[in-house]
Amino acid sequence: MNIAFIGLGNMGAPMATNLVKAGHRVCVFDLVESAIRALEAEGATRAESAAAATRGVEVVISMLPAGAHVRGLYLGRDGAPGLLDALLGTPLIIDASTISPEDARIVGAAAAERGLTYLDAPVSGGVGGAKAGTLTFIVGGSEEGYAQAQPVLEAMGKNIFHAGETGAGQVAKICNNMLLGILMSGTAEALALGVKNGLDPAVLSEIMKQSSGGNWALNVYNPWPGVMEGSAASRDYQGGFLTDLMAKDLGLAWELALGSKSTVPMGSQARNLFALHSAQGNGGLDFSSIQALYRAGEDK
Ligand code: NAD
After folding, report:
1. Distance 62 CA to ligand 1 centre (A)
2. Are 163 and 138 in contact, with CB atoms under 8 Å apart?
């Protein structure tokens, strides 16, 4: 297939690379030149704008930081027209960014007005999953759109779910990431407690992994430096899933809770922890660096 891929960051770059590897013709665009060049080296073709990337494609995929970027891309900003008005033909639109369900519905409705099919398809699995092509896609949108997207998503992911209508993918993703934020901060807290009381973090991690506290953070994303080879913690928390993006997702959970009069005390606590961690200058580090919040003053 001919595919346009817009947004080549920590997640978008390996996802687009897997599309190339699967034999698709992928035309890419990002605001950062070096990101485009890296994908060219993988066999993608470059475009000088998002609109140019979509010429003659059957599918448009976007992987951007937040809702404002997605609205800006598709609907336009500062008087400039959006991509929806620049598209030729009727390519399927798949936005894999994590944004609010409200934003997804706004862009989805604008797409539908122009006869276009839009799917929200946020992902889970982290940069490791993006590289390995084992992401989980959580799709919101029509049955027809979901069926059309499947062969493309299968080149980047292993588990593909249809959560419901437009926006439903984002609701499910936000619930998942609220739980992840709670689990990561809880894991960091437990590790810090054990280490302060004389345990080796690797030994404690192994014990908890095989016990009732076992969870995804312990299994594949251990926040303590040096415990897990290849983890963000073991490379000074560079790359991965940024603290600011986790704080954004926990904010989305909070908004969702307000709108539906739901109670999310654990999610609120996690949101405050990640917001505090970000305010202390760690927004650009991987979210597992929340471990540092529990280690402050350790050597005193
Ligand atoms: P990132 O910040 O690494 O990458 C975003 C990319 O989008 C950047 O390269 C940026 O230059 C580009 N960009 C921004 N606006 C653009 C525009 N208008 N046109 C073209 N390019 C533009 O972010 P990421 O970690 O790749 O995450 C992307 C999305 O995926 C976020 O919504 C995030 O919440 C979600 N997500 C991330 C992870 C993870 O582990 N990193 C996991 C699951 C979901």
Report:
1. 9
2. yes
